[in-house]
Amino acid sequence: MRKVELLAPAGDLARAKTAIRYGADAVYIGGQLFSLRSRASNFTMDDIREICAFAKDYGCAIHVTVNMIPHDEDFEGLREYLIKLQEYGVKAIICASTAIMKIARECAPKLEIHCSTQMSVTNSLAAKFMREEFGVDRVVLARECTMEQVKEITANCDIETEAFIHGGMCVNYSGRCTLSNRMTLRDANRGGCAQSCRWQYHLYDEDKEISDDLLFTSGSKDLFAADMIYDLIEAGVSSFKIEGRMKTEYYIASVISAYRHLIDEILETGKPLSAERMAYHKKEILRGENRETCIGFYQGVPGSESIIYHPNSDASVNHDFLATVKSYDDTKKTAVIETRNPFDVNEAFEVLSPGRENRSFTVNSIRNEDGEYIEKSRKPMALLEIPVPFELRAEDILRRAR
Ligand code: SF4
Hints:
By secondary structure, the chain is of the alpha/beta class. The protein is about 25% helix and about 25% strand. It has ten helices and 24 strands.
């Protein structure tokens, strides 16, 4: 089958490197300016240069979100920023503003322009228009497209299409929302979404509270479209996008690794996977922490079952991220690990390693930095030595099923 792109999110340098190691073909990141979800913790210019160099060694592409909806006072420094991105080797920018597209075409012509899902492209005419008028190279389809519409658009426009397959959804048309502005004065379209749709509200009928013990939210369940990947490949979609620039390193590693295996198996076999294989991959994907999920719009306009109306819908965590591997000594058969969460001696660990099937072992002993044997590890970021019966690689992740 035709090669497709697995596109991962990353909120900082460490998570971008993790996504690349665990099999992403491309990673999208945000700079400190001109991006939705702009914040100081986003990538600095030095970070962007570093991740481009790192990605190059893996044959991975870096896409940068330049997807704010700018007002006149927001353009200062944009040209210089885009020229730098081009110079550092960024492959594409993701834009939601025709003004930014026009400026990018003028000052940084080597950057691909990807039309953000925020522009809500739901038909092939719009996709063609973006190509002809603004030189767009790819459209990120609106999450509100059904599978039939994805097929139609992809067949009838002569540019690449990208589709979301996993992660958060917005109950409004992908960010076309002023709820956050109203509630917090934080503009969702200039990077400030406070996720106000996920807050818990008291419900009133005029001035009478309907129920004071039933708080109400209106956020969407997360997208989980692993079942649609074969059909999306068949439809000609070029890139499969995971949402979640704010997600943890563990989430990125487990979800990207699982989708990597799933997509590779489909591409190798060239046909839809059996129910048994799909169940295996879906279980692996859900080992990252996940909120309640739905299939989005792929099988038709979703109903009330796709909305979280009441609390208790926080991320369900079925594994604990225990440590990352710093080094492995093949002679001693021991690993030095850096801890994240508590664990005890004699617990069963599972190893998440890029490109490998998951393996398990029991930790028979733990030695601390002073060479003393300890029964329990309770300190985060401690360097410990443990025996491991098989080879581990630096940056492998150790986790424990709950
Ligand atoms: S507040 Fe909710 S609906 Fe509005 S943009 Fe943010 S995520 Fe979307």
